[in-house]
Amino acid sequence: MAAGRTEQGTAPFSRSHTLDVLRGLGIVGVMAIHVSQAFPSNIHAVDFAFMCGWTGVNVFYFVSAMTMCLMWMQRTGETNRTVKFYIRRFLRIAPLFWLAIPVYLLINGTGPSDNAPNGIGPVQVILTATFLHGFWPDSVNSVVPGDWSIAAEMTFYLVFPLLITAFGSRRHLYVALAIVLHLVNVCLFKPWAFALFSAYYGPGHEAFVWTTLHISFLNQLPVFLIGCALFFSLRDGFTRSDAAIYAVFVALSFAADRATGSHEFNYLMINLVLGALVVGCIKLAIRLQPLEALGRNSYSMYLSHFAVIYGLRQLWPFADGLVSLLIAYVVTAGLSYLVAGATWHLVERRAQDLAHRLTTAGADRSSVRPTIAATAAGMR
Question: pTM, whole model, 2 decimals?
């Protein structure tokens, strides 16, 4: 019965097409915000629309949480499941990320910047290479552009087996933990950490500290937890109790925001709307081949598009404006896609082959190989 329920219940996720569409939407949004920062149209409505692309990262979070739940449930009978999970996730993320570190140190240098007021030194590089950069303000987004989301992803991967082993499919527990962590962050951690790091970095760096606390893992973890809850709600069906617990979440967050001035209530509401849109896309089984192609290459495109934008900015022949922005966006997307194709063959495929060899040895080989084949394309 358990096997049958899992097979039937994961039917909305049994193919990776819609998840790839969502990843494609995520990278489309992420590229939009960064292209518009480098090539502004100087038209307020257009630039604002492009800036809203930051929500693409949060779409990635939801898809990541759902994909991890899917992969975990599909490998119920696998031996040493937690160890093999860590091997797959590490080899999926680390090789390309490590390659990005020297590339961006060469491009951006090590001097002081908005994300590293005192410059980049060995500490920042070591923390980044070990995926611990999310725990210190001037490391979280300084060595590799956008690496704050990689820090959040890797930290989520670290705790995910513990969470799903403890909570299983009891989706209300994921939301309850999200509520607790959100309130702890808003009411306790953020005010304390803001005072601590503002004093550490000195006057004039308050905005930097506030931003790094916003992108901290503690502030992002509730998004992943909601993604896990939505996975099991899609699998088992939504009920009135789901609506009730989300309503409690909204009410408590609003009260905490009014009491502390943390400005995280709006962030929560945006994420709940994004979660609803993700669920809607999955239920409707949305498919669109161009977005699927982008989604399958979204990780490499995420890491490489910053370098592409930097290169274009050095050579760009057009004055800022709407036409310049649109051309820059298309060129950035095209070149990033080509880079992703190259890195897939040179780096990512080799790393996934290694992960496959390490995790399918012995008796597990025959039973696990079909599952890996079914999910590998969606995890590119």
Answer: 0.90
